[in-house]
Structures are given as structure tokens and as C-alpha cells.
Automatic annotation (TrEMBL):
Superkingdom as given in the UniProt entry: Bacteria
Gene3D superfamilies, alphabetized: alpha/beta hydrolase (3.40.50.1820)
PANTHER family tied to this protein: MYCOPHENOLIC ACID ACYL-GLUCURONIDE ESTERASE, MITOCHONDRIAL, PALMITOYL-PROTEIN THIOESTERASE ABHD10, MITOCHONDRIAL
Signal peptide from the UniProt entry: none
Record protein name field: Palmitoyl-protein thioesterase ABHD10, mitochondrial
Record bears the keyword tRNA-binding: no
Functional summary from the UniProt entry: Acts as an acyl-protein thioesterase that hydrolyzes fatty acids from acylated residues in proteins. Regulates the mitochondrial S-depalmitoylation of the nucleophilic active site residue of peroxiredoxin-5/PRDX5, a key antioxidant protein, therefore modulating mitochondrial antioxidant ability. Also catalyzes the deglucuronidation of mycophenolic acid acyl-glucuronide, an active metabolite of the immunosuppressant drug mycophenolate.
All residue ranges annotated as the Serine aminopeptidase S33 domain in the record: 42-169
Sequence intervals crossing the membrane: none
Keyword Cytoplasm: no
Length: 251
């Protein structure tokens, strides 16, 4: 199958980059993580799988991410949720399987709650619901909070590269979209893959999401030696197996 690409223009004029593969059945839609993009290892592995399996697949970059337009520092959970909904509306026919990684797991839950009839199932990798409020904000020192109050931005250190900007608007907006401790009113198949050695999303945080989801068809898989990215060959194999399992579930 040939992958096509393009840009989806949002009402404010900003353009979102996307790539799509045609196929049969529900469309698998990739929702990446915070500061990641659709060219990452897992997103590309799913493109390869979709092309060989004849499954429809869409991946895209949020506002301020990857090939999409916009200033990352101006992004919010509200904005990125709207990006996901726009992609579902304009690029996906019928039902979708949302595959959300880290922040994409949170956005997948928010998207599914907004349009449940369009969502076949969820496959979440190290999901990070409420991460701005429950995982990120607690890291801040008094000096960080003072800088945020004065300048409206905190430059957060990263193990993956240079420090990056966290705006006061992102933190305040994220708190408005909090879904834990639940209940999370989703009634569709959900599969969660979580690394036991994840330094960014504690496995108990992801388990709290699994327990908060209203539906009964929820399976939580703890990969004891897995990190946050879960991009090793064996992790990719588990991810594809989880997608194939939910695709076999009637909706």
C-alpha cells in the first residue's frame, strides 16, 4: 500500500501534517507523545504493519510538533485534543482504533469521550493522563515556580535533549482536562502496555487509568523491564498484537 501525505488546515490557519495508508476495516490512528512526532519508531513500525496487512492507518503531528506548523510553546491540551478531533473528522471514514503513546494516551481518552460512536477501541502505550498536573508540576522547585510566575514559562530539563519550555497556560489548561481518579466513561475495548522501568510514567499511574475506565474489556500489560518508549522489537510486537486483538473484537 502507498502512503500519501498532506496538510490539514485548521480554522486559525495553522496546518497539521499527516500521512495516510488506505485499507480495510477500522482506521488505526496514531496519537504521539509530548514533543514526539509521527516519524518515530513506533509510528513508522505501524505504518509498515498497516501497509503489509492491508489496514487503513493515519498518523499526524500536533500543532507545534514535527512537520506541523505552530510554536510548541503555545500548545495546550485543548489545542492538541482539537487537532485529534479534526483529524478524525477530516481524514478517517467510519470507526477508528486510537493508538496513543504517553500524552497521546490521555488525548486518546479525551477524544474517545467526545465522539465515542466513532471509536472502535483504544491501545495505549505508557499513557500519561493528567501528566501536566500530576507528573510534571510536582517536579518544580520553588525557583522553577518563581520563574513560571515571572516569565510565564518554565524551562524543564530533559533526559532526551535540551531543556524545553513549559508555559503557565499549558499547566493551567491541562488541569481543566483532568480525568483521574475517574470514573473515565469509556465503554470500548482498551489495551494498555506499560513499562515497569518507565522513569517518566510510573506504572501505578497507568494502572490507575486502567482501573478508572468504566468499561469491562480492559487489559493492562506490565512489561517489567520496559522503559517509557517501549520501542524495542519485542515491544513493537506486543503493540501490533494488541492492535490485532482489538480489531478482532466486535463493536
Amino acid at each position: 500500500m502507498v502512503e500519501t501525505a498532506g496538510f490539514l488546515e485548521r480554522p486559525d490557519g495553522a496546518k497539521l501534517a499527516w500521512r495516510r495508508i488506505e485499507g480495510e476495516g477500522p482506521t488505526v490512528v496514531w496519537l504521539g507523545g509530548f514533543r514526539s512526532d509521527m516519524a518515530g519508531t513506533k509510528a513508522q513500525a505501524l505504518a509498515d504493519w498497516a501497509a503489509s496487512a492491508g489496514r487503513p492507518y493515519v498518523r499526524f503531528d500536533y500543532f507545534g510538533h514535527g512537520e506541523s506548523e505552530g510554536d510548541f510553546a503555545h500548545g495546550t491540551i485543548t489545542r492538541w485534543r482539537e487537532d485529534a478531533l479534526a483529524v478524525l473528522d477530516k481524514l478517517v471514514m467510519g470507526q477508528a482504533v486510537l493508538v496513543g503513546s504517553s500524552m497521546g494516551g490521555w488525548l486518546s481518552c479525551l477524544t474517545a469521550a467526545a465522539i465515542p460512536d466513532r471509536i472502535h477501541s483504544l491501545v495505549l502505550i505508557a499513557p500519561a493522563p493528567d501528566f501536566t498536573e500530576k507528573l510534571m508540576a510536582p517536579e518544580m522547585t520553588p525557583a522553577d515556580r518563581a520563574a513560571l510566575e515571572e516569565a510565564g514559562v518554565w524551562w524543564r530539563p530533559s533526559e532526551y535533549g535540551d531543556p524545553y519550555p513549559i508555559s503557565r497556560n499549558l499547566l493551567e489548561d491541562g488541569a481543566r482536562w483532568s480525568i483521574l481518579p475517574g470514573p473515565v466513561n469509556l465503554d470500548m475495548p482498551v489495551r494498555i502496555l506499560q513499562g515497569g522501568a518507565d522513569p517518566d510514567v510510573p506504572w501505578r499511574h497507568a494502572l490507575e487509568l486502567a482501573q478508572a475506565i468504566h468499561g469491562e474489556d480492559v487489559v493492562f500489560t506490565l512489561i517489567k523491564d520496559g522503559d517509557h518508549r517501549l520501542s524495542r522489537p519485542q515491544d513493537i510486537a506486543r503493540l501490533i498484537a494488541a492492535i490485532e486483538e482489538v480489531l478482532a473484537s466486535p463493536r
